[in-house]
Design a protein that fits this description.
Blueprint lengths: L1 E8 L2 E8 L2 E6 L5 H18 L1 E2 L4 E2 L8 E2 L11 H4 L8 E8 L2 E8 L6 E10 L12 E3 L10 E2 L15 H6 L1 H6 L16 H12 L4 E7 L4 E7 L8 E2 L5 H15 L5 E5 L7 H16 L3 E5 L3 H12 L8 E7 L8 E6 L16 H14 L1
Parallel strand pairs: 3-16, 3-17, 10-15, 15-16
Antiparallel strand pairs: 1-2, 1-7, 4-5, 6-9, 7-8, 8-9, 11-13, 12-13, 13-14, 17-18
Helix pairs in contact: 5-6, 6-7, 7-8
């Protein structure tokens, strides 16, 4: 299991966050979940910007004096250097990294006042470049994914991906050459769909999440545009443009596509997979993400949904993923603490959580208790 190291970055003075094959980040708003993801994204951006490419992996073993912007890449909007340095920091340095047993990689940044960048000044690399952080393929889906669109633009990409907001989903699904050459591996295939083709597997999973829904895609090089059209039980096999069928499909489709194409050993980060989904679909997307992780993709999920976690627990109980591969990191506030408190929760082979800390998805019970008191009055 890897650990994410964060020092003097935003709300964290010094913390080590466990990263498993499937890592869930949860907790109340403003308690550090997004900061954890931003630190990993910024570390990845540093590698892309400052490392050398050896033809297979990024190689980053010493600082080369390049500055790394705090905004734009990976949809980051971190502001200026003063805004990312922990308020009570004793020095003007931020450290971000990963370690696993004797393997370690970290970057130390110098922080100057009111700059739109940080400057890496020290690099420690005792980790294999085969680590997912150094691969070309790195998948990230922002919480603010694009909603239904009549069309999407066609763009160049270094490797097949749906974009940070799902803006390349139609292009991937509509690219017939990619669809016919790419095969979904057996661990991720929907059990009742024999074809390994991407579109067929996407539709099988989509229909599982949202009954009766499938999509079609087209890609037009001459107009540099691609389009998703959708079917449901009411369209009578006459597919309609995406804006006529709602947000849920547009928000979940990039997750399905990314999960099916993500390269083994690489990172896949998804924020709020539950957005615009019915609770039933939220649970099922949890099961899907468990299947993706079981196929060897390093999945990190930020969620406010107990249904997503329930789906992961069910997947464990059904032996669709090994319980040892799953860690739930719960971020919370404690009195007189200088940074958010972290509680790592494991799940046993029956899908049972190792602990249930205060504030961890207990609102339903609290609301029921309040209703019970009111009704007794």
């Amino acid at each position: 299991m890897e650990n994410l190291i964060i020092r003097n970055f935003k709300c964290f003075n010094d913390i080590s966050i466990p990263l498993n094959t499937l890592t869930v980040l949860t907790g109340a708003n403003g308690n550090g979940k997004s900061t954890a993801i931003q630190s990993l994204l910024y570390l990845r951006r540093t590698i892309e910007h400052c490392a050398q490419w050896d033809g297979k992996h990024y190689v980053y073993r010493e600082s080369n004096g390049k500055n790394v912007g705090l905004n734009d890449s990976y949809r980051l909007a971190l502001g200026n250097s003063n805004q990312v340095l922990t308020r009570d920091s004793e020095d003007n340095a931020i450290l971000l990294g990963l370690y696993e047993k004797d393997n370690m990689f970290y970057v130390k940044y110098q922080v100057k006042d009111d700059e739109l960048f940080l400057t890496p000044v020290e690099v420690e690399s005792r980790i294999s470049e085969t680590s997912g952080l150094f691969a070309q393929e790195f998948y990230y889906l922002n919480a603010e994914r694009i909603g239904p669109r009549i069309k999407q633009d066609i763009v160049f990409y270094d490797f097949p991906n749906t974009g940070f907001q799902g803006e390349q989903t139609a292009q991937l699904l509509g690219d017939t050459s990619f669809n016919y050459s790419f095969k979904v591996d057996d661990k991720r295939k929907f059990r009742e769909e024999e074809s390994p083709r991407l579109l067929q597997q996407v539709n099988a999973w989509l229909n599982y999440l949202i009954q009766g829904v499938t999509v079609q895609a087209s890609c037009h090089i001459d107009t540099l545009s691609a389009q998703i059209r959708a079917n449901n039980p009411f369209t009578k096999n006459d597919p309609v443009i995406a804006p006529n069928i709602g947000f849920g499909i547009s928000y979940v489709l990039p997750i399905l596509v990314t999960g099916l194409i993500a390269k083994e050993g690489c990172f896949m980060i998804v924020e709020n997979p539950e957005a615009h989904l019915h609770p039933s679909a939220q649970s099922k997307i949890g099961k899907f993400l468990a299947k993706v992780a079981n196929a060897g993709v390093k999945v990190i999920v930020e969620t406010h949904s107990d249904h997503v976690i329930n789906g992961i627990q069910v997947a464990i109980a059904k032996q669709e993923i090994n319980s040892a591969y799953v860690t739930i990191n719960f971020f919370n506030q404690t009195e007189n603490s200088g940074q958010p408190d972290l509680k790592s929760i494991s799940v046993n082979e029956k899908g049972e959580l190792s602990s249930w800390p205060k504030g961890f998805f207990d609102q339903t019970q609290m609301d029921f208790a309040e209703l019970f008191k009111i009704r007794k009055q």
